[in-house]
């Protein structure tokens, strides 16, 4: 089974505000772009992934991620994360109705293709499934089979909300790179300990994140 991934990305100027304790205002857009670039690169290198659609209205991000091979979908609803995912999923389904879908966070700079494949293979057993984040309260990946709607419920306590919606929580270990999203300085340090992609390495070179 090969999946289409839908990755939402807000405007870089508004991204990663919770990293203010670690990165100055002028550095955070570059970090957000680097995270997304490393995420998309790893996703496209995953054998279980057919293609990647990034939902964004950011011109720079769209250009850079398209150069990596992602399809860029304008964020026409402009209604936040879940609206962007629903819009992206609808557009993908209109073109490829037979494709299973997975919503993936854009801030997984340590993402490993083999770990992502393991998660997607496990998710293929269920109509809808999700993987909680490293913090244990959020979600980094949500899947839907070809005959199901994605029904994204990202945001605070999304782990509970996705479980309540009927999605199956995937009880996987050794997939830390798929769980480790980056919102805070501590998250960034955890991702660096796992080993991040080259664009994130370059972007954090000016930061003191020891």
Give an overview of the whole structure:
- The protein is an alpha/beta fold and 210 residues long.
- 38% of the residues lie in helices and 16% in strands.
- The chain has 8 helices and 7 strands.
- The chain has a 7-stranded mixed sheet with strand order 3-2-1-4-6-5-7, sandwiched between helices.
- A hairpin with a 6-residue loop joins strand 5 and strand 6.
- Helix 1 runs parallel beside helix 2.
- The N and C termini lie far apart (40 Å).
Q: How do the helices and strands follow one another from N- to C-terminus? A: EHEHEHEHEEHEHHH
Oligomerization state:
single chain
Briefly note the structural class of the backbone: alpha/beta
* Ends apart, CA distance between termini: 40 Å
Count of strand segments: 7
Tally of contiguous helical segments: 8
Strand order of the largest sheet: 3-2-1-4-6-5-7
Rg, nearest Å: 16 Å
Main β-sheet, in a few words? 7 strands, mixed
Low-confidence stretches: none
Beta-strand portion reads: 15-25%
What gross morphology would you assign? globular
Helix share, percent:
25-40%
Provide mean pLDDT, rounded. 96
In short:
The protein is of the alpha/beta class and 210 residues long. It has eight helices and seven strands.
List the helices and strands and how they pair.
Blueprint: E1 3-8, H1 28-44, E2 49-55, H2 59-68, E3 71-73, H3 81-95, E4 101-104, H4 113-123, E5 128-132, E6 139-144, H5 158-164, E7 168-169, H6 176-179, H7 185-194, H8 198-203
């Amino acid at each position: 089974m090969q999946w289409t991934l839908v990755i939402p990305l807000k405007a870089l100027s508004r991204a990663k505000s919770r990293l203010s304790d670690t990165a100055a205002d002028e550095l955070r857009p570059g970090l957000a772009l680097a995270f997304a670039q490393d995420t998309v690169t790893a996703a496209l290198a995953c054998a279980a992934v057919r293609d990647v659609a990034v939902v964004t209205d950011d011109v720079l991000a769209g250009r850079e991620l398209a150069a990596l091979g992602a399809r860029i979908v304008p964020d026409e609803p402009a209604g936040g994360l879940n609206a962007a995912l629903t819009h992206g999923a609808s557009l993908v389904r209109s073109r490829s109705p037979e494709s299973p879908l997975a919503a993936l966070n854009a801030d997984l700079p340590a993402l490993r293709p083999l770990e992502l494949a393991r998660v997607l293979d496990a998710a293929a057993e269920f109509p809808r499934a999700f993987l909680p984040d490293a913090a244990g309260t959020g979600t980094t990946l949500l899947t839907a089979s070809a005959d199901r709607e994605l029904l994204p419920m990202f945001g605070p306590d999304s782990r509970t909300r996705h479980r309540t919606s009927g999605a199956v929580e995937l009880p996987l270990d050794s997939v830390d790179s798929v769980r480790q999203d980056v919102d805070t300085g501590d998250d960034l340090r955890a991702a660096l300990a796992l080993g991040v992609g080259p664009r994130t390495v370059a972007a954090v070179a000016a930061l003191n994140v020891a």
